Amino acid sequence: LNPVLAIVGRPNVGKSTLVNRILGRREAVVEDTPGVTRDRVSYPAQWTGRNFTLVDTGGWEQDAKGINARVADQAEIAVDMADAVLLVVDATVGATATDEAVVRMLRRKKKPVILVANKVDDIQNEADASVLWGLGFGQPWPVSALHGRGTGDMLDKVIEIL
Ligand code: GDP
Ligand code: MG
Prior knowledge:
The two termini are 12 Å apart. Helices cover 32% and strands 22% of the residues. The chain is built from five helices and six strands, in the order E-H-E-E-H-E-H-E-H-E-H. It is of the alpha/beta class. The structure holds guanosine-5'-diphosphate and magnesium ion. Residues 15-16, 58-59 line the site of magnesium ion (MG).
């Protein structure tokens, strides 16, 4: 059975774009507008000859519990299925209250987390990524899921821990 890598984070940070980057094809639906309800979706993936299962998580409508709780709850289901987690944050925005809700949930889990600072499209944005050291998951990996910048180094790290 292949190891499972869950991709979690609040809506619109670029999770599905990162899934497509890892798969090398456009399979996960990328939304310009956050908040489309969708289930978790699994994809067979590989990197440097290692096979793994990638689990993308959707965006969630705000309900009575509020968007933060909804995102954290759905992320928790994906994390419980996973051997390792990619926590995706939008480095151009920084950590929001919704990101913090996911972070609190992840701290309770005994799963390895790789912190992905997405939307670092060029070198000038790398300072945005280093602020995310403060989330307490070690080194933030600056990537641009859209352009592929930094994703190879990040995946090398993923394969090390998976
Ligand atoms: P998700 O809700 O976390 O799955 O986010 P999506 O993958 O649907 O992306 C949300 C929006 O962010 C889309 O408009 C993407 O094109 C954009 N996006 C994703 N990754 C990047 C990136 O690396 N750089 C930039 N500039 N935009 C990105
Ligand atoms: Mg998505």
